[in-house]
Structure formats: structure tokens, C-alpha cells
Design goal:
mainly alpha, 77% helix
Amino acid sequence: MQFEHATHSAMAVALLPFIWRWFEIENFRQTAVTSFVMMIAPVAVITEGRHRPIIERMTHRSAGCLLGSAVALASLSALGNTLLPSLLVLSVGVWIGYHIQNGRNGVRYIGTQFALGLLTTLIQGPGAVTDITPGLERFVGILIGVAADCWLIVFWPLKGDKQQ
């Protein structure tokens, strides 16, 4: 079962160059990171043959990134690129992400991804934000990576998945 799961992980990453070529994607690093990170699961879960924790992690990664990027974009459109309001949004957003990440609930990974989505969108270098592309590229890259993993789960399920 562990070998089969490791093969799933390798195939998820191996599919990416074909997806990149098909959609003419040039620079979406997050697809490879997402495809690999999402397939990391505890050995006990793998031996039980369930994808539930992997699907949950995919959902949390996508939702957290979307929420963080949405907050960043909303703050940019409402407050503009002024320094003090941007720092305030950034500080409060990282604080919220930190508290979600360190909470006792089952959505801790959303907090991590929320903060990363916020940071990726709001911090792009030494100057003001001039382009929302980095946040958008991260989110689209995550979605493509999740889609590659979902494709494998649907078309090549683990043995235990067929019984549930």
C-alpha cells in the first residue's frame, strides 16, 4: 500500500509537465509543490487505503489561499497602496492566520495558507504592490496541483477507497 501511494505521489508530479504544456503554462511553481505536498500522509492512513486526509488537505490549502488572497485584494481596492493601512492589514491578517494555524480545531492548515496567500499578494518587493499576478499565480497553481491529485484519486484509487 505504501508503494502504491508513493507511486501516486510521483505520478501526480509527473503529470504536471503535460498539464503545463497543454494549457501553455510557463511559471506555476505551486503546481508541483501542491501535487507533492498534498499526497504526504501518515503511514497509518495510507495502510488503511483512504484518501480522506489528502482531500481534506487539498480543500484547506485551496480555501486558505483563496481567503488570504481575497482579503489582500479587498484591502488593496479599499485602501490602496498606502503604507500604514497595508501594514495594518498585513499585521492583522498574519495574526489571524497564526491563530487559526495554532488553534485546536481541524482547520489549522487553512491558517497557514491564509497567511501565505495574504503575504504573496501584498508583499512583492521593496515598493508598493503594482500587480496582483503573484497571488493569482499561486492560487491557480494550487488549483492545478489539486486537480492533478484529484484526477489520480478518481482514476486510480487506492485499494481501500473502492470499498468505502
